[in-house]
Amino acid sequence: MKLVAGNWKMFKGPAETVAFLDELEPPAGVEIVVCPAFASLAVAVGRGLPVYAQNVHWAEQGAFTGEVSAPMLRELGVEGAIVGHSERRQLFAETDETVRMRCAAALEAGLRVIACVGETEAEREAGETDAVLRRQVAAIPRHDALVIAYEPVWAIGTGKTATPELAQQAHETIKELHDTRVLYGGSVKPENAAELLTQPAVDGALVGGASLEPESFAAICRAAT
Fold this sequence. Notes:
This protein is 39% helix and 15% strand. The chain is of the alpha/beta class. It has a five-stranded parallel β-sheet with strand order 3-4-5-6-7. A three-stranded parallel β-sheet has the order 2-1-8, with helices on one face.
């Protein structure tokens, strides 16, 4: 069964989150999770879909202003977390080592994890995609509760999308290195979801902007069936 995760980034407060989940009509035959902003996690829990956070710290508690721990998420009823999203790497100094620590802490606490990897446009143009993926994947723990999301950074929020052939190739590389499901993330939309999700090595999608509207997200979920 394919997995489709909606990463809402810094959109949708509690009221909008409740309205979205009340309107969404998720299809059968696909595993669906939503990843609201921290302020909206509590109201999302218990409304029919698994809820993941967008980040998680490696410490159980401490002087880490602005962070949230895995036990706190578990107490809310959150089931998993995204770790190492390209925006965290680019804008907030996330490294392969901090990704590893966040993944390990989340998994140890009983959370599921979507760990993100992917190359920048400059790295792809320099022929470094394979090396980047190998380095990033090497830092990710092996665990049954972990999946990897391949998100070419040049396709995040740009409207650009990897061709199905490029996505397939990258997913094959990742699966050679890590025996897990691999999701595609990078401007996934209802218009391109089917051709991406029918690639043999693509096990689902991590959806950004197109997950913010119930019908758009539902259409991508239907394509995954």
